[in-house]
Predict the structure.
Amino acid sequence: MNFKLVKKESTDTVIKFVFDNSKIKDFEAKSGQVCVRYEKKETIVYAGLGDRKKIDLDSLRASSANAIRCVVGLKRSKVSFIDPLFKLKNSSVAILEGAILGSYVFDKYKSDKKSDLKNVEFVSNMNKLQFDTVKKLSESVFLTRDLVNDNASVVTPQKLEDIAKDISKSSLVNIKVLNQAQIKKQGLGLLNAVGQASSVPPRLILMNYVGNSKSKTSSCVVGKGITFDTGGLNLKPSGFIEKMRCDMSGAASVLGLMRALTLLKPKINVLGVVAAAHSAIDADSFFCGDTYKSYSGKTVEINNTDAEGRLILADALSYSIKNYKVDKVIDLATLTGAVVVALGDVYAGLFSNDDGLSNKLIKSGSLVGEKLWRMPVDDVHSESMKGDIADLSNISSMGRNASSSTAASFLKEFVGDKPWAHIDIAGTAFNENSIRGEIPKNATGYGVRLLYEFLTSQK
Ligand code: BES
Ligand code: ZN
Ligand code: ZN
């Protein structure tokens, strides 16, 4: 779909935003409601915004997304979006984001392709640079969504490496990939254990984006890339296993972020890290009760093979911190089912050892509509992760209680005193319910815009 910034519309299908006092017959114009009217030669899609006093960036994004989906349903090939140019800061950006993000369809496996919509005119006097930024960021979100939506048999650790190599064609990115032999040799024993049963072996992928060569440090972003989570020998039951191709969402968001950086070239430095493994079951599966040695040297006894995300992240976090100059680390991971119970698909769980970092992340999230809710990581949680025969256990002695916090406290063991934030996206990365504004069903692409906003707003 091609989005173009224009000064005047040239199509006969037009999207207009209206408030609840607009007096359009039989249309209440509540926030998010859409109706179609045929007036003279024009088709007008009215996008309701409700009460004028209550509009915010979230409601603009959602209305805009609903309107574009309505046009897709009408099977039009062209549409013009009239930007109402509200005084609200960034309103044009939010409307454009809603329009582009809402136009996403994953129809790779549909015989009948849904969308005829090819050209979208955005009638606005917003600045061209802002327009291009939204377009490129949204393209990067689509990369993330496509990777998460596609088959686990297609999106393997090898595929994640191929995408990372493609992104690293940019002269601003240097890539290093550890293959399985190097993972073993360099002692990333936890990443190796999780990935060793698969015919597609694990990888550690490190993409170093240098947009500011004068600065010697960078921010590090690490993504969980379990390309399918069977649960290992602690096999996941029916009802839980079906959507586990989404378990590489953190990695897909890191790849989306790196793509955005190469397209938009901000003057910052970012190390993007993907820990990729297929947690499969076969004769080589890692065993319950066995102890494995992590890259950091700490030993970990495996009391549940389904708690695999924390294992691969532990090695990825300590490897990145030891081998690169990074001043803070943020990891994104579909880590625990408990965060879905606590926060659903609206907020991601945020766990951190640094209040400043947390507050900035929360602020960036609320600006872009990818919300975060901070949850505790306490010494009591850390205490509960002590091992019986090893230094650590990969599950907590508190059982299922506070299991998002205990998982976070396990990760904390591997970051030393580096400012660190862990974002548990098990609920927000994959929407099993119905479409909500710019958030489609299935893969949402959560994290790309949040991290881009956070990293580029840092001084
Ligand atoms: N990948 C899952 C977490 C998950 C759950 C992601 C639902 C997306 C939706 C993770 O590897 C897992 O299995 N976690 C277990 C940990 C438990 C065994 C301590 C969980 O949360 O149940
Ligand atoms: Zn698991
Ligand atoms: Zn998992």
